[in-house]
Amino acid sequence: MICAACNAPVEADDAFCRACGARQAPAGSRALSPAASAGERRQMTAMFYDMVGSTALSTQVDAEDLQIAMHAYQRRCADVVRNFGGTPQATMGDGGLVYFGYPIANEDDPLRAVSAGLALIAELPHLNRQIAELLPHFDHQFQMRIGVHTGNVVLGEVGSDLNEGRLATGEALNQAARIESAAPVDGVAVSDVTARRIQGVVDLRPLGPRDLKGIDHPVELFEVVRLRPGQSRFAVSTHAMSPLVGRGGLLQALEQHWHATAGGSGCTVVLRGDAGIGKSRAHHALRQQLTDTRHAWFQINGSSVMSQTAFHPIIQAIYEILEIAPGPDAAPVLAASLAAVGITDEATVELLAAFLDLVQPTDTSMSAEERRRLTIDAVCEWWLAIADTLPTVMVAEDLHWYDPSTLEVLNLVIQRAAGHPLLLIGTARPSFEISWPDEVTVIDVEPLSFEEVNQLVDRLAEGTELTELQRAHIAQRSDGVPLFAEELVHSLEGGNLAGAEIPDTLVDLLNARLDRLGPAKEVVQVASLIGREFSAALLGAVLPQMDGLDAILGQLVDGRFVDRRGVGARSVYLFRHALLQDAARESMLRRRRQAEHRRIAEVLRRDFGDMPEGRPEVIGHHLEHAGEVLGAVEQYVAAARSARRSAALEEAAGRYRHSITLIHTLPAGAERDGHEIALQLELAAVMGLMHAFSAPAVGEVYMRTVALCEQSGEKGDPYAEALHGLAQHHLSAARFDDAARVATVLLDHAREAGQPHPEVLAHRALSQVRFWTGRYTELWEHSARAMELYDPEAPVEQRFAMGIESGVIAMTYGAVGLWALGRPHEAAAMADRCVEHAKRQPDVYQQAYAQAYLSMLGIMLIDPERVERWALAAKSIAERHGFAPLEGLSRYTLAWAMAERGHPESFDMVVSGIGILAALGTGIGAPGCMAVVAEMYAKDGQFGEAAGYVAFGEAMADGTGQHFYTVELHRSAALAHLGLADAADDDEVRATELHAAEQRASAAIDLARAQSAASLELRAIQPMIELLCRRGDTEAARSLLADAVAKFPAESSGTELDRARAALRGAAELRPRLRFHEV
């Protein structure tokens, strides 16, 4: 046996290494399962050698003599390659195959192989003399060709009837054989892959690109001329480096930021560089520098598996810092920790306790979005409170694996940290895009120079006997990466290089360390599948039959494979480097990796379902890598839905997209299409909430889904929902013809299939199209039919589409249709019923949607009280939950109500509302907004501004076909012209404005009549009545009013209608200026 910590020999019954004192695994420890030893994947260097002219020789020499000569030849070849660590695998008469890197890998296997090849060539004269002495009459001089290539192979057991050991298969063997055939006589040829691993320590002569049989591209070949021991590649080529000798400059920069922080000025520094470059080492060095300085230090860590799980790094860090786990027993610990920094507010303590899953939330009325927002704020203030108590360093490790919600928290901390003694140090790989404020300092961590690596090696190898050659090898092969240098030193502790150079890749080195682990190798491999971090409890559950697991884990800690936190059953282990984990994982065959991932998933579901390790996204990760696509997707979808309920929309969308990518790995067909259709529909709903349904990306998802349904023959609810979604996308983008076309296809499909749910969707979509295009009779017909078919007892998934409940939609638009067609009292009653219905729904979006859109109806009803009540409620909900479209709409309708009550700030409110809607870029509803705003400015005497808003609204209406409020635009324009006429000093200007007012008033009346919109006509005639009364033609004015009123049912009533009837009776003034409700 060999010690994993120092590679020194140990006896089977040794509990500790006699050389270094590291704990050893018990002799009786056994591997996970027989399957674990059935094969493995690894990088290996293969050497093929072959005798030149052996075929002709067999016809010229006695067969018995040839057999004796060949036996001597093969025996000598075997002895030579063994001297260099090679394993003769197969002899084939005059040739042979040799493994370098199996069964025990060496960090310099490519160099060993070419060294062995050169030794074989050098041995030929001696071999020929030996054979001449053995067979004096054998008149032949042996010559050889040798080929070497480094690549990946799979090793599997070979039956005892064939050979001992394992048979390797893979491109390394095939290519080595082809290279041998192209090698010079008595020469060693290597591929470009192997040449890169030995350059600088051998002399190579290019042989040029060669076309090799069975390889689809030319391969650059090189002949190995001779070894150049001791030659350093860095002596030939030295790259420019930053002046951070031994990272001293980097540490000095961190210390400067710390001094600024300690003085009360918060700082943020991001260390950016490749894995292993020394980012973590740098902040660890700062921590050592601060040992005698009063400060607080804590760290949060990213996880590749949990990168779409909201707040995971934060939650895990708090668990570790406070040494708690989910459950009520930990709540007092949290409360005490908060109280220590002055946070005693019960609501905040309860919020954070619920965030950490220590207690259940007591305020069940709080929405998910509001809870999320308050939690982010509370976590930020907690950290800042810690800093105010004690200058603090917070390390955010592996930012490239952080979920969007955690990044949002850090962004808030950065924004607020200016006046607090908090130093935030982040580490990230180069791929991480930093979008934080300019005040954040980004330091790119460069590789070490050759001299700096030598200094690092001196520190790492302190107390260890390393030769100068070994030091030079480490400095050369580390390529300036501290991790490589560190691991090279650890691999050499207690061993020798046998005079060979180390390869410029870490793969062989890590394989060498793994091979020397003995039974612990199986544990490392399984642990690598669990993740960068793993608990002793989970590993033990996955390996229930593994004897002496605690001792093996101790051996891994002593061998510096992993670090340990905690003790006993609560111990958590962390691979010291991601590359160590990768090497262990990649050494396993795919089928074994899949089997172990499947086992881990089963254990997590069975025993860890109520713990962080058992989250759906974690189980999904293991099922994905087990090859169980549908099982993985099921778990990812569960995680996505949970994220959506928590308003973590980006994380939800990420899970859906990844699930769709996985589904595409299944065989094409109706089953795969069905799974993708369901995922695309859920993704589209989330994206609509994130970006607005008019976003091109949302439309692409719905178009893809519709195409999938038609391709697979899916004609049920998913097809209807996809068509409805596509119609809504076109509608939100003000493409009404497209929306009507798609909705009509849906209606035809629903009627043909006799399905009420799809027909409801079709009618609700068509009612919206008809509303925005000003076709009010059809609007009412579709709304009425939707209400008739609507079943309030239907399953939730049938009542909701795109996040909006069908009853809410039908009543909202139906109420508008009733008003337009001259039934305002019925419209008001239906609106009230709609609001109450929305409040009974399971989510607050329905309340916000209904009240925001019905506040527009309130304006039509001239009911400031209703408008203010509904708009305030909608605005409050929209602001808390981030429903931007509804917030913008409610702001502008609220501004109208404020203007009606004489509040001067109404104009600021309307501008803010329009700004929100404009930022969304949908254009939907803009003409109506402009008409209302124009009237507000006209009433305030700002007629020029009113005309400007009218012009903008008309341009939007003409560009999009939104004619639902074109009558009002004409009316507002007429009012503006009347006002400008009154303000004009010039008679010609006054006449021009009056003429324009008359034209606009006539246009409003004509369009209202064409739309059969009695209520709009009653409003449209107002400017014309004003003009007629100015001319003294009151009879014509009265006749115009009487014709308009006659179009209302006798039972109808409403603010404007009641006032108009009173005017006809003589009980009110005939001449309104703007509206009949004014005195």
CATH superfamily of the domain at 43-231: Nucleotide cyclase, GGDEF domain
CATH fold assignment of the domain at 43-231: Alpha-Beta Plaits
| Weakly predicted, low-confidence segments | 1-9, 15-23, 25-37, 158-164, 229-245, 494-505, 1074-1079
Based on CA atoms alone, the radius of gyration comes out at 40 Å
Major sheet attributes: 8 strands, mixed
**Counted beta strands:** 18
Strand content: 5-15%
* Name of the CATH architecture of the domain at 43-231: 2-Layer Sandwich
Give average pLDDT, whole number.
84
Structural class: alpha/beta
Please tally the helical runs, counting DSSP H or I stretches of 4 or more residues: 45
Q: Which shape, going by the Cα principal axes? A: elongated
Helix content: 55-70%
CA(first)-CA(last) distance: 103 Å
The first-level CATH class name of the domain at 43-231:
Alpha Beta
